[in-house]
């Protein structure tokens, strides 16, 4: 239905440009010709045969010239408009495709996603799972392995903490080169998913998961302090995490042999391309 409507829209525009507009121009040209012709006749009658009056084009030639000039001008203008909007649309499409995003799915957001009902350690259809442990921190990485699922995010991450520290601040970072995401929260919810959606970005990106212990005791503050968040971030920016990891990823285009774009990661020990 959409294609049919688009074709009908184009045909109507063509009719307006190439039939109706020329007819209108032809009518106006004939009117202008008649006014000009009448003016010249009156001038000749007033000045006699000695009047310096150049011969006029025939009505048909005058109309053809006028229609051609106007149609040519319209086509040039139309071409400029099409090029302008074509470049603009291409830029917008590129911007939408290139810039990746990182965010979390939890609670209602997770329930309303394709991963509803996820529990830490579950398998997720369409993804290969890679488990990593860093002391008391357990991470599950899910890497998309099927181009048929290209509408799904490329990487998912779930985390669980098995230690006995009560005051734990979590910070996650994703650096794609063209954009960055950086957020933190207190406490652990193992049944949440971090989404790393690469989009059309091709290149290297790094994901970091960091744990900081007893931050508030070290700073002597709690969340009632007016500078709570600023001081918390200043502390994390100036100190190494108590527990953490960095995972490097790389996305690449078609490498030949029928292989499509895929993701590799040295820390997870994966190098593959989507079939």
Can you describe what's shown?
The structure is a single chain. The protein has five helices and eleven strands. The chain is of the alpha+beta class and 275 residues long. The chain has two domains: 2-95; 101-271. The strands form two sheets. It has a six-stranded antiparallel sheet with strand order 6-5-8-9-10-11, with no helix packed on it. The chain has a five-stranded antiparallel sheet with strand order 1-7-4-3-2. It is elongated and about 115 Å long. The chain starts with a helix and ends with a strand. Residues 1-10 have low confidence and may be disordered.
Helix and strand layout, with pairings?
Blueprint (H helix, E strand, L loop, with lengths): L1 H46 L11 H40 L2 E5 L2 H4 L15 E8 L2 E8 L10 E7 L6 E8 L4 E7 L6 E5 L5 E11 L1 H5 L8 H11 L4 E10 L9 E4 L4 E2 L4
Antiparallel strand pairs: 1-7, 2-3, 3-4, 4-7, 5-6, 5-8, 8-9, 9-10, 10-11
Helix pairs in contact: 1-2
């Amino acid at each position: 239905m959409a294609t049919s409507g688009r074709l009908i829209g184009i045909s109507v525009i063509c009719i307006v440009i190439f039939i109706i507009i020329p007819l209108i121009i032809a009518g106006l040209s004939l009117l202008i010709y008649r006014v000009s012709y009448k003016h010249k006749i009156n001038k000749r009658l007033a000045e006699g045969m000695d009047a310096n009056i150049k011969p006029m084009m025939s009505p048909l030639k005058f109309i053809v010239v006028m229609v051609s000039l106007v149609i040519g001008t319209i086509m040039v203008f139309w071409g400029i408009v099409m090029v302008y909007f074509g470049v603009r649309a291409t830029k917008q499409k590129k911007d939408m495709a290139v810039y990746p995003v990182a965010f979390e799915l939890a609670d209602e957001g997770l329930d309303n996603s394709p991963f509803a009902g996820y529990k830490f350690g579950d398998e997720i259809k369409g993804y290969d799972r890679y488990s990593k442990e860093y002391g008391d921190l357990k991470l599950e990485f899910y890497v998309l392995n099927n181009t048929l699922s290209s509408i799904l995010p490329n990487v998912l991450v779930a985390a669980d903490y098995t230690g006995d520290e009560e005051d734990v601040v979590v910070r996650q970072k994703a650096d794609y080169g063209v954009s960055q995401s950086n957020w933190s929260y207190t406490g652990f919810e193992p049944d949440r998913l971090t989404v790393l959606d690469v989009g059309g970005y091709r290149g290297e990106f790094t994901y970091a998961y960091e744990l900081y212990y007893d931050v508030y005791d070290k700073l002597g503050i709690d969340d009632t302090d007016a500078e709570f968040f600023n001081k918390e971030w200043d502390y994390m920016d100036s100190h190494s995490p108590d527990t953490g990891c960095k995972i490097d990823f790389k996305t690449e285009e078609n490498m030949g042999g029928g292989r499509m774009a895929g993701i590799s990661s040295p820390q997870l020990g994966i190098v593959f391309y989507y079939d």
